[in-house]
Amino acid sequence: MSILEFSLLIWIGSFSAGLVGALTGLGGGVVIVPLLTSVFGVDIRYAVGASLVSVIATSLGAASIYIKQGYTNLRLGMFLEVATTIGAIVGALIATVVTVKALTIVLAIVLMYSAYLSQRPRIEHTEDEAADPLANYLKLNSTYPSPEGLASYQVHSIPIGFGLMLIAGVLSGLLGIGSGGFKVLAMDQAMRIPFKVSTTTSNFMIGVTAAASAGVYLARGYIDPGLSMPVMLGVLPGAFLGARILQGAKTQILRIIFSIVLVVMALKMVYNSLIGGL
Predict the structure, then answer these.
(1) For a disulfide at 272, which of 79, 99, 251, 277, Cβ 3.0-4.6 Å?
(2) Which ranges does the record mark as transmembrane (predicted)?
(3) Could you give the 3-state DSSP secondary structure of residue 177?
(4) 246 compared with 146, residue with greater pLDDT
(5) Beta-sheet strands, E only, within 52-181
(6) Is 148 helix (H, G, I), strand (E, B) or coil?
(7) Dist. CA 2–CA 99, nearest whole Å
């Protein structure tokens, strides 16, 4: 296979990953890493490096749209980025010293959990709740656009959310998946903010988290321009197309297929790692 053919196949796979990732709300990184390792036989560390570059590009492209629309809570995002950035650097440093087999098993577990997350019903927190004193002190409460106009919401459980963001950062740096599902879970379930605010703020945060860990991978030589470029050029248009389709599409069937694919990829990666890919 020539370099041109390999790059074209990587672009097609990355475009599909960006499309499916945007439609399911989990981002393309959770698809790209197992795609590169299982299908194309790329070393997992180089796959993670390429995925981090694509996550940065995708986040920067979509975040500006959500900020203009008024969904993203910038103050909350910058506060939680302190935790995710620290976690991302720690995760990236760990990833450069642990074995490939250990990384593969951890990624397989995260893939299965992501498959579970994609099937969870999304609950909107719209009820009036008592204000959190710490959120008031940090001025994290805000508003977001709704069909009835601007709706206000309260942020809760700041310490718990901060701790979960630290874990999300470690997973992002370790596996290069952006860990958007964990960020959304922390904000939506633990901090009890509206789901649209959770997803858009998570998208804003993912780029900063990935940039922190990408610096470590770049310094260690795990970001290959020949691999990262077609991945980034494929994921970005795929994510934009997925965002447009998502506005009027019913994605439940796609979520089921996506979950099955993630589980199959996870089992294949564990099998290859433990048995030797026979």
Answers:
(1) 277
(2) 7-32, 44-67, 79-112, 160-182, 203-223, 229-246, 253-271
(3) coil
(4) 146
(5) 142-146, 149-153
(6) coil
(7) 30
Helix, strand, or coil here: 160?
helix
**Is the CA virtual torsion 138, 171, 183, 16 positive or negative?**
positive
Percent of the chain surpassing pLDDT 70 = 77
In the 8-state DSSP scheme, what is residue 5?
H
Specify whether the CB–CB gap between 55 and 204 falls below 8 A: no
State the angle between helix axes of 74-95 and 44-69 in degrees (0 to 180), rounded to the nearest 10.
180
Using CA of residue 65, residue 67, residue 69, residue 73, what is the dihedral sign? positive
Instruction: Name the one residue in this structure whose structure tokens are 């952006």.
Output: 178
Give residue 120's pLDDT: 64
The tokens of 267 are what? 């089992």
Give the DSSP per-residue string, 210-241.
Answer: HHHHHHHHHHTT---HHHHHHHHHHHHHHHHH
CA distance 171 to 161: 15
151: β partners: 144
Strands (E), the chain: 142-146, 149-153
Which amino acid is present at 164?
Answer: L
Task: Please report, as a single letter, which amino acid is at residue 227.
Answer: L
The answer on pLDDT for 235 being more than 60 is: yes
Backbone angles phi, psi at 132, to 5 degrees: -90, 125
| Overall residue count recorded for the chain in this entry | 278
Instruction: List CB contacts of 197: < 8 A, sequence separation 6 or more.
Output: 71, 72, 73, 142, 144, 153, 187
Name the one residue in this structure whose structure tokens are 């909350």: 76
Residue whose entry in the numeric block shows the structure tokens 């959120």? 135
Retrieve residue 36's tokens: 């590169």
Please enumerate in sequence order all residues whose Cβ is within 8 A of that of 101, keeping only pairs 6 or more positions apart, or say none: 273, 274
Q: Could you tell me what percent of the chain has a pLDDT over 90?
A: 8
